[in-house]
């Protein structure tokens, strides 16, 4: 178990810089914003399959970026540091700190959806890289843990079960609050025996 004080967290300036760089690139291509990238990296660190960082960069930036060499090195370094931070939180073993409010409720004038929806969509993108491996052992339990993330991602909003949850604000928030402990359960499911 990690010591919380030793977690290699990005400082405020680094978080702001990473968020802005990802946002700038998102305006150029269909890439990930900060919350989607955080969700993706969390899924990869949580799940059963290890990926090289070069593969992770390709998931976040499907096309060649407009960054110059120095900017590209900087954004990749910040993403790796974010990955170390996420790994340390998983190793710590307490409820995982999702980097946004655990709700899908947004102000009426916010057309972009909630940050949690983006985060959950990023996490689902990580699962879909190798879905069979996620469900290979104890499919029923895994489906139970993944369900709140599936719900929050909005990717399955057309399904009747999801629509029913959407109609009840309290139930929706309750479902979203299940995400942090579910992440730790999944991480332990895949990695506890390796420790």
Overview of this protein structure:
It is globular and about 45 Å long. Helices cover 63% and strands 0% of the residues. It is mainly α. It has one domain (4-194): Up-down Bundle (Four Helix Bundle (Hemerythrin (Met), subunit A)). This is YecA family protein. Pfam families: UPF0149.
Structural class: mainly alpha
Average predicted confidence as pLDDT = 92
Coarse morphology:
globular
**CATH class category:** Mainly Alpha
Helical content (DSSP H or I, runs of 4+): 55-70%
Flag low-confidence runs: none
Intertermini distance: 10 Å
The sequence of SSEs as H and E is: HHHHHHHHHH
Give structural attributes.
10 helices, 195 residues, YecA family protein, Four Helix Bundle (Hemerythrin (Met), subunit A), mainly alpha
Topology:
Elements: H1 12-26, H2 34-46, H3 53-60, H4 69-92, H5 115-127, H6 131-135, H7 139-153, H8 160-166, H9 169-177, H10 179-191
Brief account:
The protein is an all-alpha fold and 195 residues long. It is built from ten helices and no strands. The longest helix has 24 residues, at 69-92.
């Amino acid at each position: 178990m990690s010591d919380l004080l030793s977690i290699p967290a990005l400082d405020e300036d680094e978080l702001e810089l990473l968020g802005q760089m990802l946002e700038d690139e998102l305006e150029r291509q269909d890439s990930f914003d900060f919350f989607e990238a955080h969700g993706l990296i969390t899924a990869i660190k949580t799940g059963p399959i290890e990926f090289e960082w070069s593969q992770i960069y390709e998931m976040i930036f499907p096309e060649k970026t407009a960054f110059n060499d120095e900017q590209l090195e900087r954004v990749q370094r910040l993403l790796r540091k974010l990955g170390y931070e996420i790994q340390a939180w998983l190793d710590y073993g307490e409820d995982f700190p999702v980097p946004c409010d655990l709700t899908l409720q947004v102000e009426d004038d916010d057309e972009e959806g909630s940050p949690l929806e983006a985060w959950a969509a990023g996490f689902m993108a990580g699962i879909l890289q190798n879905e069979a491996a996620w469900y290979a052992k104890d499919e029923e339990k895994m489906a139970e843990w993944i369900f709140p993330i599936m719900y929050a991602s909005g990717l399955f909003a057309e399904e009747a079960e999801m629509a029913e949850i959407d109609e009840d604000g309290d139930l929706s928030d309750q479902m979203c609050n299940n995400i942090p402990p579910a992440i730790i359960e999944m991480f332990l499911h895949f990695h506890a025996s390796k420790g």
